Each structure stands twice: as structure tokens, then as C-alpha cells.
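so my prof wants the structure for this chain in the C-alpha cells format not the other one, which i didnt know existed until like an hour ago. anyway here's the sequence
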Amino acid sequence: MTETESSRGYCRKCLLKDMPEEAYFKSLYEYIAHLDKDIKAEPKEYKRRLDLCQTCENLLNGMCRICGCFVELRAVVEKNYCPHSDKYW
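here's what i got, hopefully its the right format
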């Protein structure tokens, strides 16, 4: 990363392992905030999905142990579904 890139923050090509934890969470939430409204789940549905994920034994540190996704990213997209065999949502 060049001096210019480091003064602006982390580049788009940085891996999560190269970023402080706070920076990659900020990056994930910025990504969610900037998704096109046409593909996002309604706020109530998004909350419902996350509530269900929080009860699942496969949630670990914000990630689904079945598919490896960050559940907050998967749940925010309307067309996505739960990867569990019981498809909780």
C-alpha cells in the first residue's frame, strides 16, 4: 500500500486479515448502506432474518459456519436465503 493509500484508509484490495477489526466491520456496514434499495430486504425482514441467525448454532463471530458468509451481508439481500438445510429464512 502506498503512502497515499494509507493516509486515506485501506484499499479495496486489502484482505480482512490486513485490516484492523474495526476497519473491516466499518467496511462491511458501508457496503450494506450503499447497496441499491431495489435489492435490499425490507428493514423488518432484515431484522427478522438476523434474529433467526442469532438463534442458530451455526453462527460464529458474525459468520455462518455452513457457507462462510457474514450473515449481515447475506441477510440484507432480498433474494438470498438461509443456507441451513431447514432454510430458516
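also thought this was worth mentioning. The longest helix spans residues 21-33.
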